[in-house]
Amino acid sequence: SNSEGSYTQILNICYDVCMKVNSAKFIKEIASDDEILGNGIPQVAFIGRSNVGKSTVINTLTKVKDLARTSSFPGRTQRINLFLINGNTYFVDLPGYGFARLSHVEREAITDLIDSYFFHSLYKQKKVVLIIDASIGLTDTDLDMLRALEEHGKDVIILANKIDKLKNSEYKKQVKKIEDSTVGHPIIFFSSESKVGIKELTNAVLD
Predict the structure, then answer these.
(1) How far apart are CA 31 and CA 206, in angstroms?
(2) Cα distance between residue 167 and residue 164, in whole Å
(3) What values do phi and psi take at 128, rounded to 5?
């Protein structure tokens, strides 16, 4: 009916308008368990290999250029960075994993911090955004992280980042490769440069 059609249209408009980042601010760096993570505010965690673009993704979503610090040097982020979004959701930017040029002690500290946050605490994440490089697909370390998240019942979104780097001739093959490796999880293809996937990811993490 016309009334049902109008209602659906209103819902669609509301969905588009409501799922936006209206405010974003850095709260603190966390080097170990912190009581702030247990204050009941929903958490959306961003995790991925070093230099896969986690901080850039967060900056793109929030439209705040330097909210999360970016660097061309992999492994720069070695603590958990916490951001308050819209006054009611935390974006949790975790250190990148798998960067071999860090010292053994630094790598072990990062692994312990990630494991403690995801697997050895009472913290519950509303969503976990596992960011991969679209041109590479899931590496062995990505698959290890995905399986661990699955085993602990985490609600995982796969974000295939830097999709703009793919050549047209590679696109379909690489998309299928990623889909075959991540059965059962939503996949969002994303690019900060070409503004692909921003709306889809915003809706997914703020819904």
Answers:
(1) 26
(2) 8
(3) -120, 120
Report pLDDT for 100. Answer: 55
- Element (DSSP H or E) covering residue 50: none
Say what the pTM is: 0.86
State what percent of residues in the chain have pLDDT above 70. 86
Is the per-residue pLDDT at 146 higher than 80? yes
Of 71-80, 134-143, 185-194, least confident by mean pLDDT is 71-80
SS3 string, 98-160, reads CCCCCCHHHHHHHHHHHHHHHHCCCCCCCEEEEEEECCCCCCHHHHHHHHHHHHCCCCEEEEE
> Is the separation of the CB atoms in 47 and 125 below 8 Å?
no
- Residue 191: phi, psi to the nearest 5? -150, 120
